[in-house]
UniProtKB/TrEMBL annotation:
<keyword id="KW-0001">2Fe-2S</keyword>
<dbReference type="InterPro" id="IPR036010">
    <property type="entry name" value="2Fe-2S_ferredoxin-like_sf"/>
</dbReference>
<keyword id="KW-0479">Metal-binding</keyword>
<comment type="similarity">
    <text>Belongs to the 2Fe2S plant-type ferredoxin family.</text>
</comment>
<dbReference type="GO" id="GO:0046872">
    <property type="term" value="F:metal ion binding"/>
</dbReference>
<feature type="domain" description="2Fe-2S ferredoxin-type">
    <location>
        <begin position="32"/>
        <end position="121"/>
    </location>
</feature>
<keyword id="KW-0813">Transport</keyword>
<dbReference type="GO" id="GO:0051537">
    <property type="term" value="F:2 iron, 2 sulfur cluster binding"/>
</dbReference>
<keyword id="KW-0411">Iron-sulfur</keyword>
<dbReference type="Pfam" id="PF00111">
    <property type="entry name" value="Fer2"/>
</dbReference>
<protein>
    <recommendedName>
        <fullName>2Fe-2S ferredoxin-type domain-containing protein</fullName>
    </recommendedName>
</protein>
<dbReference type="InterPro" id="IPR001041">
    <property type="entry name" value="2Fe-2S_ferredoxin-type"/>
</dbReference>
<keyword id="KW-0408">Iron</keyword>
<keyword id="KW-0249">Electron transport</keyword>
<dbReference type="GO" id="GO:0009507">
    <property type="term" value="C:chloroplast"/>
</dbReference>
<dbReference type="InterPro" id="IPR012675">
    <property type="entry name" value="Beta-grasp_dom_sf"/>
</dbReference>
């Protein structure tokens, strides 16, 4: 190899460029396994980090109750059996959220989750009890 060719292969600024496999790995988001029990049926989903569980389910053709998709109307209530979600922006009181209740439209997974849907009445009763 000539001296010129060796200099052309020298690392710039003392660092090597990342390999293509490293760049691809950095671009792949974490995906969580979400299992939702709804009216006696089980829905299994792969939900990417930061994505709404409800919107992912709807995109996959599953029929789950919803209306506003903004965390306001409370027509998409559910209870976490296991796992954790982020539900920033939800209208749930902190007390209710700490008991594991969630609104699927604003819930984004922080881990694999098992979830069961509940009735709006059950959630509204809980909300009213904690607001007194
Ligand atoms: S769809 Fe309205 S709160 Fe979830």
């Amino acid at each position: 190899m000539s001296a010129l060719a060796a200099r052309c292969r020298a690392p710039v600024f003392g660092r090597r460029a990342p390999r293509a496999s490293t760049i691809r790995a950095m671009a792949v988001r974490t995906t969580y396994k979400i299992s939702i029990e709804h009216q006696g049926k089980n829905i299994d989903l792969q939900v990417p980090e930061g994505e709404s569980i409800l919107l992912t389910a709807l995109d996959k053709g599953h029929d789950l109750p919803h209306d506003c998709k903004l965390g306001v109307c409370m027509t998409c209530p559910a209870k976490l059996i296991s796992g954790q979600v982020d539900q920033t922006g939800s209208m749930l009181s902190d007390d209710v959220a700490e008991k594991g209740y969630t609104l699927l439209c604003v819930a984004t997974p922080r881990s694999d989750c098992k979830i069961t849907t509940i009735s709006e009445d059950e959630l509204l009763d809980l909300q009213l009890m904690t607001s007194q």
